[in-house]
Amino acid sequence: MTPPTTSDSSLERLWRTALTPRWLAALLALIVLVAAFIVLGQWQWDRTQDILAAERSAAAAPIDLADLVDDQGSWNNADIGRTVNLQGTFTDDELLLANRELDGQAGVWVVTRFELDGGQTVAVVRGWLPNDASPSPLSRQSVIIQGVLHPDEEFYEGANATRVVTVDSAALADAWGEDVIDGYVMLGGDQGDAVRGVPMLVPPTVQVGDVAFPLQNFFARWLYLDAKK
After folding, report:
1. Number of domains composing the chain
2. Same domain, yes or no, for 77 and 22?
3. DSSP state of 72
4. Which residues sit opposite 64 in a β-bridge?
5. What is the rounded CA–CA span in Å between residue 133 and residue 43?
6. Residue 207 phi, psi dihedral angles, 5° rounding
7. Which structural domain range is residue 38 located in?
8. How far apart are alpha carbons 91 and 111 in whole angstroms?
9. What integer pLDDT is reported at residue 47 of this predicted model?
10. Does residue 207 form part of some domain?
11. Are residues 97 and 143 in the same domain?
12. Per-residue pLDDT tens digits for 138-192
């Protein structure tokens, strides 16, 4: 009979050790722990998805801009991309911001100061026109409009030193001599008609749709939500 090799002996000792009650109990505990992690992970995922769905639903619903803005004309960055309603009047303060393209054609953005019924004013990007067009006159009657809330555009430092070239509330306030709510609203609604001087709508430059769930923040978000209990 051939004597067992050292390797066979080591393997046999390993199996004997693995089959002892102590190691079998440890294996069982590990299996239970892994199963618990799987169940808890699924619960965390479902719970977070429900919360995100509720947040997205709330964010998708149009809201009055006046409800988002404080007395200093500021609002929370979390509201970037929200659809907002504005009730008030377009004013005579209007600027054409050059070097703006739409579908590859050069033109301008038409930016008008809109006075809310509550007294505050906000810059409204009415849309785009080709360089050789002039915006049509606006009614000065009270209207209700809807658009997407944007933060101030950020170009290089001093971009608006000689003339306003970006939609920046501070620069616009200086140009118009009136306080302006932070950021601006990109007008929505009808498509427009450049031939008649009605600006063509400009697609929002911020994220307004759903975004993929950030897996890298999954556990961090769960811990944060539990800590708030």
Report:
1. 2
2. no
3. T
4. 85
5. 58
6. -70, 120
7. 6-50
8. 11
9. 63
10. no
11. yes
12. 888 999 999 999 999 987 777 888 889 899 999 999 999 999 999 999 998 666 6
Residue 54 has pLDDT above 50, yes or no: no
Q: What is the DSSP letter of 67?
A: G
What CA–CA distance (Å, rounded) separates 104 from 127?
15
The 10 Å Cβ neighbour count of residue 199 is 26
Residue 184 and residue 72 share a domain: yes
DSSP 193: B
Taking each continuous run of H as one helix and of E as one strand, the counts in the chain are: 4, 6
pLDDT, tens digit, for every residue of 125-134? 999 999 989 9
Q: Which residue has the higher pLDDT, 122 or 214?
A: 122
**What sign does the CA torsion over 33, 227, 218, 46 have?**
positive
Confidence bin at 30 (pLDDT 50/70/90): confident
CATH code assigned at 184: 2.40.50
Among candidate residues 112, 104, 98, the one with its CA nearest the CA of residue 143: 112
DSSP annotation of 82: -
Residues 175, 68, single domain; the answer is yes
